[in-house]
Amino acid sequence: MKNRYLVFFILLLGCNKGEEKVISDVKQVKTLGEMVNEGLNSNIFYSSFSNKFPVETNAILFVIPNSSCFNCFEDLVQDLSIFYKKNSFKNIIVLKNDNIKEREVRFSLQDVTRMENIEILDIANNQLIVPHDFFPELGFIRNGNLSCIEVFEQGNEKKIKDYFEFLNLMVVN
Amino acid sequence: MKNIFFLLLTLLLIRCSSKDNNEKHIVISQPHTSVADVVNFSDYFEIIEVINLESSDSSIIDYTHKIVFDDFYFILGGGAVYKFDKTGKYILKVKRGEDGPNAIKNLTDLILLKNENRLWIYDSHHRRISQFDYNLIFEINYDLDYPLFGLEKLETGLIGSPGYMMVVKEPYSLFRFSGKNLATGYSLEETTMGFDIEKSDYLHIFRHDYFSELETGDLDFVNSFNDTIYNINQNGESSIKYVIDFKDKRVLEGELVNKGYTSIVDVFNYINSTDKSFNIGNIFESNNSLIYRFFNSGKPYFSIYDKKNNKLTSGQIIKFNYKGQEIAFPIDEEMRIGSFGNGKGYLSITSESSVIGENQKVFNTQDGDNPIIIIFNEK
Fold this sequence. Notes:
With 173 residues, chain A is an alpha/beta fold.
């Protein structure tokens, strides 16, 4: 039980402090559930990037995969929508490449927030994150600091639930 | 003796008729086409109207899979059926995934019953037809019990296709049902167009352009893996109408079977890595012309076949006149060509500047807007 609190504490640090690589990568894990329970981490989940966004930025970063499709991440968006409503979030920052149409972004996020709250950035001008070929990535931006970057494979609903549970428990509150 | 004579004559007539059905088709020789080739759409069709569909957070559409029209435009998207008025103003939608008796999981096809002012939505997951009025109020479900990817209503019943999915004991691509309406029901009468059983393992294609309505009321049915377009009459009888011959760029049967594919992605990846052309779809046929789309090396192209003059024009760039201006842009994968069944057709094109460029100004649209619907008829 004590170990679990220790893991939560480490996760909290990983997402809030401007530290680079709090824990070194031990092995690739499949779900955040495993990560929370076993104290493991995925590649850059624990990394925190300071000063990449204006200091007043509080938002989710949504990285559209290289080969997007409109209905490919419905489960993720559904839980993102619940997270936004629960926490009265408004803004989303979207990273996308030239091939992705703005309508795709608008359609995908229509249940999360209004179009005017979506800021779309060109991935070519942002070397911070390499988008996955097929799967979306999320990150959490608080006071301009980016952390908790994670890839969401299609069909891995547990990972989605764990991610938002983590944000709700450890970051937002 | 008289009876034998009539029997022989009848058999002879049936045999000739059957032979005609199979042999009286047109082979369209499709040459290799370059990305710079231009199709002058205005040589064959005139643009009647351009509809800017209202773009709001409620009305935003993912794909325009199919459009039907009767005073209103009803649009089959991937996640909903949308209703717009004649000017493109959004009215309402039926969404996929909502609970209740009309819960829809896979929006497969949309059928307009003009005389009854009703719509049928086919859900291949629940294998059922859901009937709605024009206000998109749900009325009744009917379980057809087959997971079809395309479905159309005929005078004598229904015609549907499961694509290359094996849904009965034998692999067939075309299903004919007899019946008059949902109240008295439909029953499966015939399954035709067999295919190699291996294809059912990986060639599931959830597409929305199997059928296209003709002015006569007949249908075109496209079989994209043998490059063939069939005519379906109101009794549900099929006959080969066009074969698109890609010649040395044709995908051979041997490239589709015994290759160890596990999914359609493998097949597309392989074909797109070659210079082969394939995937005929998006058919529109008028009295004088046939439009079809195909793919080469992962890029979409389209052709217009002039039936009277046996002439073919193909390309990736579409050019037409609109409001006194000449418009030209490359087609993209999202473009849809379809038929309203009364000689009129539609093109659904993206509004994004990455495709239509400066033409956004002409169409009064911007990035993030719904697709533009271009209504046309034959010249």
